[in-house]
Amino acid sequence: AIAVTGCSIPEEIKKALENCEVLYLWDNDEAGRENSLKCLKEGKKVFLWSDFLKNNSYPKVKDINELLLKINKDKFTIDELIGYFSNNIFDKLML
């Protein structure tokens, strides 16, 4: 896991990730949706916030940390999240 502050990934990190399978979980805000859409257009796997929140009856939140606090949970496992990542451009409606 790599946490970045802001909305961009430094070039040296991008280079290091070129040959890795990366799952992008951007914030659930306008900037995060824009980054997710850009990644989808590049064929990268992004987290489908709308689908995840709706399917689990979770409240709307700005990021994963806020969700954990609101539902009083310590963490999510990869198994709980993995099904909500997609690189299908048609899933842009679920961002």
For the record, give the distance between the C-alpha atoms at the N and C termini, rounded to a whole number.
Answer: 20 Å
Q: Runs with pLDDT <50, length 5+?
A: none
Beta fraction of the residues? 5-15%
- Rg, please? 13 Å
Sheet with the most strands, sense and barrel status: 3 strands, mixed
* DSSP strand tally: 3
Please describe what this structure looks like.
With 95 residues, this protein is mainly alpha-helical. Strand 1 (23-24), helix 2 (30-41) and strand 2 (45-47) form a beta-alpha-beta unit. Strands 1-2-3 form a three-stranded mixed β-sheet, covered by helices on one side. 16% of the residues are buried. The mean pLDDT is 91. The protein is built from five helices and three strands, in the order H-E-H-E-H-H-H-E. The protein is 38% helix and 7% strand.
